[in-house]
C-alpha cells in the first residue's frame, strides 16, 4: 500500500470571499503549500540558492470542488503521487473537513535544472529524489 503525506491548513479570512466561503484560487495555494511541505518532509529543498539547483515547476493544475470550506475551518490535506515519470511527477490532493470531502486536485511538475541567466531545462528526476518519492506512488 502506498504511503500518503498529511498536513492541515487553517482557512484564514483572506482565503475567503465576502460570504466567508473559501475562494477557488486559495485551493491552488493550499495544494502548492502541501506539496512544499511534502518535499521538505523528505529532506528535498526546492529553493536552493546555489549556482545550480533542481526544481519542479508546475505545468498543469486542476481542482474539483465538492463542497464549501468556510473561514476558520481546518482542512486536512492528503498528498499522494498519481504518477512518477522519468522527468515529471503528478501529485494528487484530497482536502477534507471533519471527514467531509471538500476538494480533490492534481498538479503535474517537471524536474528542471535552474542555472543563473539561463532558461529552465528539463532533466530526469535524480535517482536519490525518485527513491524518496516512489513509496508515495498510488
Q: What key phrases describe this protein's structure?
A:
alpha+beta, Thiol Ester Dehydrase, Chain A, 18% helix, three-stranded antiparallel sheet, five-stranded antiparallel sheet, 138 residues, 8 strands
Series of secondary-structure elements, N-terminal to C-terminal: EHEEEEEEEH
Structural class: alpha+beta
Which descriptor suits the 3D outline? globular
Strand order of the largest sheet: 1-4-5-6-3
Distance between the termini: 8 Å
CATH-assigned homologous superfamily = Hotdog Thioesterase
Q: C-alpha Rg, in Å?
A: 16 Å
Helical content (DSSP H or I, runs of 4+): 10-25%
**What is the class in the CATH system?**
Alpha Beta
- Going by CATH, the architecture would be Roll
Count of discrete alpha- or pi-helical segments spanning 4 or more residues: 2
Percent of sequence in beta strands:
35-45%
Number of strands: 8
Taking all residues together, what is the mean pLDDT? Answer: 94
Count of discrete domains: 1
CATH topology: Thiol Ester Dehydrase, Chain A
Low-confidence regions: none
Largest sheet: 5 strands, antiparallel
Amino acid at each position: 500500500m502506498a504511503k500518503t503525506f498529511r498536513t492541515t491548513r487553517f482557512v484564514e479570512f483572506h482565503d475567503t470571499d465576502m460570504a466567508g466561503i473559501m475562494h477557488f484560487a486559495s485551493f491552488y495555494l493550499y495544494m502548492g503549500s502541501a506539496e512544499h511541505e511534502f518535499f521538505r518532509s523528505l529532506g528535498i529543498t526546492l529553493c536552493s540558492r546555489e549556482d545550480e539547483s533542481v526544481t519542479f515547476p508546475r505545468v498543469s493544475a486542476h481542482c474539483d470542488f465538492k463542497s464549501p470550506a468556510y473561514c476558520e475551518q481546518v482542512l486536512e490535506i492528503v498528498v499522494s503521487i498519481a504518477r512518477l515519470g522519468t522527468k515529471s511527477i503528478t501529485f494528487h490532493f484530497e482536502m477534507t473537513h471533519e471527514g467531509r470531502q471538500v476538494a480533490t486536485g492534481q498538479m503535474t511538475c517537471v524536474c528542471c535544472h535552474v542555472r543563473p541567466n539561463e532558461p529552465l531545462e528539463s532533466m530526469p528526476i535524480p535517482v536519490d529524489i525518485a527513491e524518496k518519492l516512489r513509496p508515495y506512488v498510488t
